[in-house]
Amino acid sequence: MRKTIARTMVGLTAIMLVAFTLFTLAVIYPWFKAQQVSRLSWDLELAARAVETSGIETFIGLESTKSRITWISSDGTVLYDSQTDASLMSSHKDRTEFREALAYGRGSDQRMSDTLLEETLYQAVRLSDNTVLRVSQSMAGIWAMVLALAPGFALVLILVLAFAAILSSRISRAIVKPLEKLDLDHPLDNQLYDELSVLLVRLDAQNKEIKAQMKRLEELGKEFTSITDSMQEGLIVISDSSKVLSMNKAAMALMEIDAVPKGHDVLELCRSANMANAIDQAHVAGHSSFFMSRSSRQHLVSLSQVDSGIVILTQDITEAYNAQQSRKEFTANVSHELKTPLQAILGSAELMAKGMVSKENIQGFAERIYNETSHLVSLVDDIIRLSRLDEGQAVETEDVDLKDLVEETAALLAPSAFRRNVRVEIKAESYIAHTSRTLLGEIVYNILDNAIRYNKTGGKASVTQKGRTIVIEDNGIGIPYEDQSRVFDRFYRVDKSHSRATGGTGLGLSIVKHACSVLGASLRLESKPGIGTRVTVEL
Ligand code: ADP
């Protein structure tokens, strides 16, 4: 602003000075010329009278007169010239002043030199003898005047401009200084030029408006942060150039960082080709997604293009993923488990059908078919039970006396215990629990069945029920430590042949675990190889 003021003032001064000089020249030059013309006229008057009375001889020998005197005959021949030899001069018959003087008695002219530096004024008069007397005088032309004035003018111009520059700098400083001290946060507190009061009032109003908008934006920001931070899903907003704009807590936890890395490339946080490809795809198609595995958890990452960039949403799908994986595994295992007995049945039946089995062996083959079929039936039963549990159907609950349930279940397994020479002891007290009779029955049945089947001849299995706690214990073969965490997995068996030989399907404890979680019961297994196993169920 200061520069503009100073520049404007200096410029204006220069323009005014030049304009003034030109104006002065335009006025002075004609005035000066008029003075010259009037003096020349007077000189001519005097010269004419002198020639009329004393003849031209008056002037002969007269040197350095300021005015030049020329005497011309009526045919234009120069008879006398005060500065040049008349005989050398050409005819003046075409000169304007001469022709005018001959015609009207007086004539005048003014002629500029070729260089425009000199102007000559002519005045002529016709004498009584019809000759013409002419007086002329040269004066500086307008350009000569300009050139003569130029050095002085330049000096004045420089001085005036320097003065104007100093003055304008001071003035502009004086104008700008209060503006620099302007308190823009409180515009109305400033005591400044009256002309600025409208601007200050407007500024104050705008300040208030901006403050209100900032507050609203802040509130919106907080609202957005509190909503996104309470989300389970990770949310990342990135710009078109993949720079992080915002990120919620879940996303920060996923990326294992403490603060939002604003301005950083998202690929610095998630160095994966999948992410880079998904960003490219989202730019092209508007949407893309991929699966990402982090800290042994599975995430579905979805990208959607929005106005100012891309919104990335991450969803923890570990449970669904694991469920899908175990379903796949289960299907593969079921096929395998079903195939083995079916092949055995098919093989035996084929041999019998082709008459390749001797009469005495037929019973053995039939027994084998019977055993394998029974195994198939229990397998299918267990699969159906598990599928029902998987479906998550609502279970029917009722008041169940746990003592009755334990005793009834143990009674079902009495033949098996008898066959294996295992003593079953029941210690139960009457306790009414509101639960599912079927599921709890299955839990106790499967655990006690194992306690009998994985026992030694003459061994012992006991069921102790106290209140809502049921403990099933045996002093059988026990479970190796490394297998204890896996025995609840579907089709997991420590000793497959022993399990099959005793009619096991590998699904018993999976059903127990599933049923317990449906009933909300806790399940604990403790086992020492060679000493025995204890399973505690607490409703
Ligand atoms: P299975 O039908 O084979 O018995 P389960 O799921 O009931 O299948 O048990 C899984 C495996 O855990 C069994 O194959 C067995 O090896 C082991 N197991 C379960 N209960 C006992 C126990 N009380 N004593 C020793 N081993 C056991």
Task: Describe what you observe in this structure.
The structure is a single chain. The protein is an alpha+beta fold. It has five domains: 2-146, PAS domain (Beta-Lactamase), CATH 3.30.450; 184-227; 231-315, Beta-Lactamase (2-Layer Sandwich); 321-391, Helix Hairpins (Orthogonal Bundle), CATH 1.10.287; 398-538, 2-Layer Sandwich (Heat Shock Protein 90). The protein has 14 helices and 17 strands. The chain has helices at 2-54, 96-104, 142-180, 197-229, 249-255, 266-269, 273-285, 318-353, 359-391, 402-412, 414-419, 437-453, 496-501, 508-519, and strands at residues 68-72, 78-81, 106-112, 118-126, 132-140, 234-239, 244-247, 287-294, 297-306, 309-316, 398-401, 423-428, 432-435, 460-466, 469-474, 522-528, 532-538. Strands 2-1-5-4-3 form a five-stranded antiparallel β-sheet. α8 (318-353) runs antiparallel to α9 (359-391) and α9 (359-391) runs parallel beside α14 (508-519). The longest helix has 53 residues, at 2-54. The protein starts with a helix and ends with a strand. It binds adenosine-5'-diphosphate. The site of adenosine-5'-diphosphate has 23 residues, from α12 and α14.
